[in-house]
Amino acid sequence: MNKFEALGLGEAIIKAVNEMGFETPSEVQEKAIPILLSEDTDIVALAQTGTGKTAAFGFPLIEKIDVNSRITQGLILSPTRELCLQITNELKNYAKFCNGLRTVAIYGGASIQEQAKEIKRGAQIIVATPGRMQDMINRKMVNISNIGYCVLDEADEMLNMGFYEDINSILAHTPEDKNTWLFSATMPKEVATIAKRFMNDPKEITVGHKNTGSKNVSHEYYVVNSRDRYAALKRLADANPDIFSVIFCRTKRDTQKVAENLITDGYNAAALHGDLSQNQRDLVMKSFRNRQIQMLVATDVAARGIDVDDVTHVINYQLPDEIETYTHRSGRTGRAGKSGVSMVIVSKSELRKIKSVERIIKKKFEEKEIPSGEEICQVQLFHLANDIAKSEINHEIDSYLPSINEVLEDFSKEELVKKFFSVEFSRFHNYYKKAKDLNVSRDSGDSSRDRDGSTRYFINVGEKDGFDWMTLKDFLKETLGLGRDGVSRVDVKESFSFFNTESEHQDMILAVFEDFRMEGRKVNVEISKDSGRNRGKRRRDNNGGGFKGKRRSEGFKPKGRNRRDQKSSDKGNNNGRRDRRKRSDRR
């Protein structure tokens, strides 16, 4: 007897379940399905990504739909187009033997008129993104006033993407006596507010502990200098020849840059972010599922639609701004009972974040070292040897063997093996033979950190470039995409300046200004190891009077107007993390 039968599911769904090869319900399915089948109730289910939530609400919803009526009876809201399509396809598979049931997906990036026609033909279940659903409601293209069931899937992510108002407006068009099923990985206050406003005494289900990571995922971190982050990524890839991974970056710009660099360096990689057209995103995901791409570089929002069971590694090229987002990332691996690895590349200034993540996921990270070139050569050689040992012989080569043997007849077996493997060994050895050690001791001091937890920077622009403290601060905020209080303690001199940001932005800032030009002139930003006075004096001495203007010590003193900026550094930088970077740059 299939264990799904014990949950009370009907014959048609059990037949589909058997055909799909499902045998044992996941924990969230085991807890939610019997309640939703037997009761007309609201429910709040907290479960991590990859735990089988779609079936947990999909099976009961299909069972409760009246296939003899063509009116819309169920609405499912999901954060992204990819997830919307994924849910729709899964529901169609679940309802394969439920004759007369139609599920329609509506989302941005496709013809709204065609989607309206699909709904008009009859759609008992609509799966929608909030933005497109609100648009169709405004145009009176859809009627959800008679639905009996509303599912909010990945509710926390929808709110994190800024859909709070849309969700409120959409739910206001639904009947009060409907059942609302809310599924989320976390329970921020906005989700709790929606539950309180639109749900009636909901039953609560929590799978495992809130925000805990998958038991099949191991967590590792590697400490490197910020400028060595990309080199570290390549070494981790080379040390894992069978890697099939998702690499997470914070912004679209970083995502595109890392993917382009990987492709240039010969890796099978691609970018997935909100600036791609829908057709481009579809092609990238198709290539990834077919394993034509080994390394998919993605933003957090774009990755919400990734549903691939065989991902071996998740690599956090940068830790997310919201620590809870880490659980979503790591949930992309370790699925379907398989093990996975979540790697984090960090600088010393980010080490405190590791402890914060550990507290949330209730798992310890293992500190590891970036492998050396010699270790990578060894791994690659043994990988090649194993591939050769497992390869089946293609007998079409037989006709060529006499000529091949004639070319190689002067070499012994040992010499042939050495020559063959030298081809692969030389490629990696030549690349890594002079490679430096990328690992950084976490115990060494970091004099760039101020007592308030921020980092101070030197920038080679100042008054002679037309800046005062206010215009330079505005320039930095716009260039770096930081929020109102993201830049503080701006101190402008004649030909150079200083400024502070929270230390967690250090890698991003150095990357932005790595090759930045303003009116043809290179703008250089460095971490200041000393106070403004000492830094200016040292640079002047080293550069033979590179700074113009009078040699007077008071010229290097802070201007005493730090009070407001210091206050914002101490207070504002700890709040409103979602506002620090434009929402569109996260997708």
TrEMBL record:
Residues 34-205 form the Helicase ATP-binding domain. Residues 216-376 form the Helicase C-terminal domain. A motif (Q motif) lies at residues 2-30. InterPro entries: DbpA/CsdA_RNA-bd_dom, DEAD/DEAH_box_helicase_dom, DEAD/DEAH_RhlB, DEAD_box_RNA_helicase, Helicase_ATP-bd, Helicase_C-like, Nucleotide-bd_a/b_plait_sf, P-loop_NTPase. Residues 578-587 have a biased composition (Basic residues). Residues 2-30 form the DEAD-box RNA helicase Q domain. PROSITE patterns: DEAD_ATP_HELICASE, HELICASE_ATP_BIND_1, HELICASE_CTER, Q_MOTIF. Pfam families: DbpA (PF03880), DEAD (PF00270), Helicase_C (PF00271). The keyword ATP-binding applies. Residues 527-587 are annotated as: Disordered. Keywords: ATP-binding, Helicase, Hydrolase, Nucleotide-binding. Residues 552-570 have a biased composition (Basic and acidic residues). One of its GO terms (molecular function) is helicase activity. Gene3D superfamilies: 3.30.70.330, P-loop containing nucleotide triphosphate hydrolases. Belongs to the DEAD box helicase family. This is DEAD/DEAH box helicase. The lineage of its organism: Bacteria, Pseudomonadati, Bacteroidota, Flavobacteriia, Flavobacteriales.
